[in-house]
Amino acid sequence: xxxxxIAGNWKMNTTVNEATxxxxxMRDELDKVSNVDKVVCPPFVSLAPVRELIKGSSIKLGAQxxxxxxKGAFTGEISPLMIADLCEFVIIGHSERRQYFNETGExxxxxxxxxxxxxxxxxxCIGERLEExxxxxxxxxxxxxxxxxLAGINDLNGLIIAYEPVWxxxxxxxxxxxxxxxxxxxxxxxxxxxxxxxxxREMRILYGGSVxxxxxxxxxxxxxxxxxxxxxxxxxxxxxxSIITQTSTIRGHFSHID
Length: 258
Ligand code: PGA
Prior knowledge:
By secondary structure, the protein is of the alpha/beta class. Helices cover 46% and strands 14% of the residues. It has helices at residues 16-31, 44-54, 80-84, 95-100, 105-117, 130-134, 138-149, 177-194, 197-202, 216-220, 237-257, and strands at residues 5-9, 37-41, 59-63, 89-92, 121-126, 160-163, 205-208, 227-230. Strands 1-2-3-4-5-6-7-8 form an 8-stranded parallel beta barrel, surrounded by 6 helices. The longest helix has 21 residues, at 237-257.
């Protein structure tokens, strides 16, 4: 069984004070849900204080990015070693980074390698843009993103994929559960082709893009979808908690059938 995961990507939101307040509001309730991996990804400056607050709880920590060099003269960047000191997960290749910070497949590949080298579990984001979707190129785009991001990487060490169609991110226009399930199933077949069947079956693949408390059940009921990467709704304690409890209820049901 793949343990479902709900990860909150706070993006460039919350001061340190707001971040710690948000965690304090959610901590005890989140901690009660046991069969879901619950991850929060605050901005860099809040990683250390949030880590202190979730110590001893079942909530896990992720960063939103890293630079691939280990250390040195790279003013303003944060290295894999610094992240690994604080976090278990790191989001890599988010479409906002590809779009606004020119992250290419080659850069994403270097970041994935650097993260794996220090024992971090990358959450690799892939997904097609609106015009690519409308041109029927979704499978071609995710295939290319997978092979460039994972080039030369043999040991995936718990890597997670988040399928995030760019047109669904922050737009309130989520994919349907069926659409997301189909593409995720396609991604899993690709992983099987690039690696093997066992790795593909064990890999967690999340959906991301306008997931809310109102549509979470639709996604979690799909057999190929192992959770969600949640942006906007992860900044509201009650929404985030509701997404997680819905996931727990539905997945508990699934494992019962199995
Ligand atoms: P959203 O963002 O939930 O606000 O659409 C998702 C993401 O960018 O990971």
